[in-house]
């Protein structure tokens, strides 16, 4: 029974063909294409307003050199939010519950920020490994600690997103199973449990958006250190 709870995180396949590529590519079809007209419909207007506000908020602490990443960060943010939200629908698969996919996003983008820092300002980039005013006996230890923390960053990015979404989906499935089991025996308790399930679903909607925002925000902070 416990294994069936984790079946929802298995990559779907049809006739032996993995369908994760379709699950990743399909969300882009849902977005309306902006037109060249002055007046758009309400959906495109809201979409444009949201993207503009997010881009301004995200790139506010960055200098002009970091603004080149605006399109990449905004696209990644919208993509993650869409996948996370669609994964809350019944009988759907959430690709971002796969650690391999999240690490595929985290590692190249983190590595790109590090390479940019080492190329443009190597002294400043290496200076982050040793805080100013460190006592001489602690210098080797702090360099090792800061180096380890630097290489843990992409792992933390991927694991954070995977763990939060996986835990939320498991909680929803466990409580939903409890509602169906309790409904014939204790209807009152089942109704209270269903109320908890509804509130948890609302919380998961917020988590789906917040985790996507945190993922991109941390990448922008890593970029801020290196531009």
UniProtKB/TrEMBL annotation:
Keywords: ATP synthesis, CF(0), Hydrogen ion transport, Ion transport, Membrane, Mitochondrion, Mitochondrion inner membrane, Transmembrane, Transmembrane helix, Transport
Gene3D superfamilies to which the protein is assigned, alphabetical: ATP synthase, F0 complex, subunit A
Transmembrane segments: 12-31, 69-89, 101-118, 138-159, 171-199, 205-223
SUPFAM superfamilies: F1F0 ATP synthase subunit A
Top-rank lineage group of the source organism: Eukaryota
One cellular component term from this protein's GO annotations in UniProt: proton-transporting ATP synthase complex
Catalytic activity as recorded in UniProt: H(+)(in) = H(+)(out)
InterPro entries: ATP_synth_F0_asu (IPR000568), ATP_synth_F0_asu_AS (IPR023011), ATP_synth_F0_asu_bact/mt (IPR045083), F0_ATP_A_sf (IPR035908)
Keyword Protease on entry: no
Subcellular location: Mitochondrion inner membrane
Membrane disposition: Multi-pass membrane protein
GO molecular function: proton-transporting ATP synthase activity, rotational mechanism
Family: Belongs to the ATPase A chain family.
Subunit structure as annotated in this protein's UniProt entry: Component of the ATP synthase complex composed at least of ATP5F1A/subunit alpha, ATP5F1B/subunit beta, ATP5MC1/subunit c (homooctomer), MT-ATP6/subunit a, MT-ATP8/subunit 8, ATP5ME/subunit e, ATP5MF/subunit f, ATP5MG/subunit g, ATP5MK/subunit k, ATP5MJ/subunit j, ATP5F1C/subunit gamma, ATP5F1D/subunit delta, ATP5F1E/subunit epsilon, ATP5PF/subunit F6, ATP5PB/subunit b, ATP5PD/subunit d, ATP5PO/subunit OSCP.
Protein name as annotated: ATP synthase subunit a
Organism of provenance: Coreius heterodon
């Amino acid at each position: 029974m416990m294994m069936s709870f984790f079946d929802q995180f298995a990559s779907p396949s049809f006739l032996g063909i993995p369908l994760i590529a379709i699950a990743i590519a399909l969300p882009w079809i849902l977005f309306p294409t902006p037109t060249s007209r002055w007046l758009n419909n309400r959906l495109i207007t809201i979409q444009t307003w949201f993207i503009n506000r997010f881009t301004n908020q995200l790139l506010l602490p960055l200098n002009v050199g970091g603004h080149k990443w605006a399109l990449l960060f905004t696209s990644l943010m919208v993509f993650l939010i869409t996948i996370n939200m669609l994964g809350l629908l019944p009988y759907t698969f959430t690709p971002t519950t796969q650690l391999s996919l999240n690490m595929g996003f985290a590692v190249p983008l983190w590595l790109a920020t590090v390479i940019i820092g080492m190329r443009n300002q190597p002294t400043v980039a290496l200076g982050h490994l040793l805080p100013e005013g460190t006592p001489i006996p602690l210098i080797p230890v702090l360099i090792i600690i800061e180096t380890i923390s630097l290489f843990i960053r992409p792992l933390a990015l991927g694991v954070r997103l995977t763990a939060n979404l996986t835990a939320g989906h498991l909680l929803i499935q466990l409580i939903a199973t409890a509602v169906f089991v309790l409904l014939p025996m204790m209807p009152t308790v089942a109704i209270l449990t269903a109320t908890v399930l509804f509130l948890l679903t609302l919380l998961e909607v917020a988590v789906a958006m917040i985790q996507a925002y945190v993922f991109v925000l941390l990448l922008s902070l890593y970029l801020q250190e290196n531009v």
